[in-house]
Design brief:
Blueprint: E1 6-8, H1 9-15, E2 27-33, E3 36-45, E4 48-57, E5 62-64, E6 67-69, E7 78-84, E8 88-94, E9 102-106, H2 110-119, E10 123-128, E11 138-141, H3 148-158, E12 163-165, E13 168-170, E14 184-186, H4 189-197, E15 201-207, E16 210-215, H5 216-224, E17 228-232, H6 235-243, E18 249-254, H7 258-268, H8 273-292, E19 298-301, H9 305-315, E20 339-343, E21 348-353, H10 361-364, E22 365-369, E23 374-375, E24 381-382, E25 385-388, E26 400-401
The structure holds guanosine-5'-diphosphate and adenosine-5'-diphosphate.
């Protein structure tokens, strides 16, 4: 992989008359982080709108166009940028819907550092802020035919509003009843390899001769629906996710014996004899790794299906010891439409209406508390607290947590 294209200041000046070549509706902010200035700009030209990030490296005097990971915000009318913890920039947008108005551009988080090493370019990553507390994603691994799909289907059927399946990409051919976009995104190897190179995948692995991978978008789509994400991935993939910044619960499903595994594969009747033999050969190594590598938090033996399912539910707190209906996710955040943004301290940011309406405190000023942020790229950022300002004292001693 080559270096990120570096542009001299002069090149940029030549290419753009005004930083990003902004039209009359364009806007940009610049944020200093150490030796670098991150310029986030948007060029709104009629129906098209392009949000871009450029980095000016003060130590070399060069502009760099970074690899941008994650899904970026939908078009909006302007933004304010506030640096947090020297590793991410909080972006508060204007003209967006309440569920799409707070974003983070990660510039030096652990995930970004890892990706920089792998991609050998400058990297930044978008992560949308979502309200509410989703439970950790669940990674389920185990050899082919052990019953992972069956167990996941049982969970999704019993708790449809709680779990969402991360739809992987694969280069293998669809089986009879499998639907594209539901069971897998069936894809060409060359397309998938390019997307991997472009940093669109959280993890990928070659399994039984085919390429499989979890796209960042697949995990984000489940997070956006407010559900708990389930990933059905092989042991190599679980190892990569374990090493990533995605905080998950890792469960390995093991068969009662190799002969039982073979019988299940044959009875399923979806593979040729050659494919069955390949899967059985790989199963030995997977079971060894699954049981001894320290990747997995829990190992469940799928002997009796009902019993294994009960044990799985117990691990996930669904056996009656915890409420099984998820708390409804709080809605988005209603920002004052024309606002100014300022930092109160390292953890609090106040957003104030530029022309306050009397008697409408929560519309006039809100405070964002970023002290308990969780998650982040790849995926969504949670844990933002939002307060209104006490209408009587109008001071920060009187802030109320918004429900
Ligand atoms: N690393 C990785 N493995 C995956 C992914 N999706 C599926 N797999 C694994 O690929 C293997 C083969 O899956 P599949 O072809 O559906 O066959 P099955 O396990 O016999 O049902 C299984 O171990 C899956 O867990 C993915 O996105 N990433
Ligand atoms: N505990 C079990 N006892 C017997 N058969 C099982 C059990 N669990 C799953 N099966 C069957 O084994 C086959 C393989 O299960 P599947 O869920 O497709 O495995 P995987 O997704 O791990 O490849 C299916 O036909 C399924 O009905």
């Amino acid at each position: 992989m080559g270096e990120a294209p570096a542009l001299c200041v002069e090149d940029l000046k030549e290419r753009f008359s005004n930083g990003f070549g902004l039209g009359s509706k364009g806007f940009e902010t610049s944020t200093d982080v150490g030796d670098k200035t991150f310029v986030i700009g948007c060029n709104n030209n009629g129906s098209t709108s392009s949000l871009e990030v450029h980095i000016y490296d003060k130590s070399t005097g060069k502009w760099v166009i970074p690899t941008v990971l994650g899904t970026k915000p939908k078009p909006y009318e302007g933004h304010s940028a506030v640096l947090l913890n020297e590793d991410r920039i909080l972006i508060i947008t204007r003209g967006s819907t309440p569920d799409d108005c707070i974003w983070f551009l990660e510039v030096d988080t652990e995930y970004v550092k890892q990706q920089k090493e792998g991609l050998e370019t400058e990297v930044v990553a978008w992560s949308k802020c979502v309200r509410g507390d989703a439970e950790k994603p669940v990674v389920i691994s185990g050899p082919s035919g052990v019953g992972k799909g069956t167990l996941i289907n049982m969970l999704m059927k019993e708790f449809p509003s709680m779990f969402g399946f991360s739809v992987s990409h694969t280069t293998r051919a669809p089986r009879g009843t499998e639907k594209n976009g539901v069971h897998y995104h069936f894809t060409e190897r060359s397309v998938m390899e390019k997307d991997i190179k472009d940093g669109k995948f959280l993890e990928f692995a070659s399994v039984h001769g085919n390429l499989y991978g979890t796209s960042i978008e697949a995990v984000e789509a489940v997070a956006d629906s407010g559900k708990r994400c389930i990933l059905d991935i092989d042991v190599q993939g679980a190892k990569s996710v374990r090493a990533s910044s995605l905080d998950a619960v890792f469960i390995f499903i093991s068969p009662p014996s190799m002969s039982e595994l073979e019988e299940r594969l044959r009875l399923r009747g979806t593979e040729t004899e050659e494919q069955i033999q390949k899967r059985l050969r790989n199963a030995k190594a997977e079971i060894e790794q699954g049981k001894s590598s320290g990747i997995f938090d829990h190992i469940l033996c799928n002997d009796n299906l009902e019993k294994c399912y009960e044990n799985l539910k117990k691990l996930l707190g669904l056996d009656g010891s915890a409420p099984i209906n998820p708390k409804p996710s709080p809605n988005g955040i209603d920002l004052p439409p024309n606002h100014s943004v300022s930092k109160i301290d390292d953890n609090k940011i106040i957003i104030q209406h530029e022309t306050p309406e009397p008697g409408n405190a929560s519309k006039n000023s809100i405070v964002l508390d970023v002290s308990l942020l969780k998650g982040g790229a790849p995926g969504r950022t949670r844990g933002l607290d939002v307060y209104d300002v006490d209408p009587i004292s109008n001071c920060l001693n009187g802030i109320h947590k918004l429900s």
